[in-house]
Amino acid sequence: MATQKTILYDDNCPLCCWYTDAFVQTGLLTPEGRQSFTNTSLEDLENRLDLARSKDEIPLLDDHGGPTLYGIDSLLFLLGQRWAWMPKIARFAPINWFLRRLYKLISYNRRVIVAKETPAGAFDCSPQFNYFYRYVYILLTLLVGASGLLAYGLTNGTWYLLGLITLFLLFLLLKIKEHPKRVNYLGLIFTPFIPMGVLLWVAAFFPILSLAFAGFSGLLGGWMWYRRLALVNTN
């Protein structure tokens, strides 16, 4: 257990709250070793913390003044306490390159993944906007969603679904066309295609559950879009 380490996390990001809590629940961190940015006196840490970097890469502080770890390095340190082979494998150049890019892809897009913004008056730990990783994320959502629709259409012959989704997508694009933050919101609007695409892939390969998974895909996507459109309309 990392008794001499403290991880700082974005408490306005449900994803960050979940996985840092998992570190505590599994014994990789003490309860005192998990602190939110909101409840931390950052002035006391200004000599040990790069605040701008901390918004993009979660920091792991050494309670005895040692170097601060960021991002994938902090996660590998914690996981390496339980599985010593993980950091060793992660040092292999191609794997290390992939893990760092994957971490950035998730981190730069984490607020659009969870559809959550910082409440008024709270400490804003939102990551900086990165065009490259936002467009990579958008492409990923479209690939997963389109491939799921294609697989489902080939196995079930329900091509009208592709048409309906395409029309709805055009509606969403037109809705945010004039929005000043439209590039930022593209990731927010396209995120539902990932779980929908995965569910449609399952529906394609398990015919007996096809209708159930396709129906759940539509319900989940509709609920996610409802939340996201509400967020777009209020900003």
Structure, described:
The chain is 61% helix and 6% strand. The chain is mainly α and 235 residues long. The longest helix has 26 residues, at 131-156. A four-stranded mixed beta sheet has the order 2-1-3-4, covered by helices on one side. The protein has two domains: 5-110, no CATH class; 131-233, no CATH class. The chain has eleven helices and four strands, in the order E-H-E-H-E-E-H-H-H-H-H-H-H-H-H.
What string gives the helices and strands in order?
EHEHEEHHHHHHHHH
Number of helices: 11
Give the strand line-up of the largest sheet.
2-1-3-4
Class from helix and strand fractions? mainly alpha
Number of domains: 2
Largest sheet: 4 strands, mixed
Distance between the termini: 42 Å
Total beta strands: 4
Unreliable runs, pLDDT <50, ≥5 residues? none
Radius of gyration: 20 Å
* Average predicted confidence as pLDDT: 83
Backbone shape = globular
Tell me the strand percentage band: 5-15%
How helical, in percent, are the residues? 55-70%
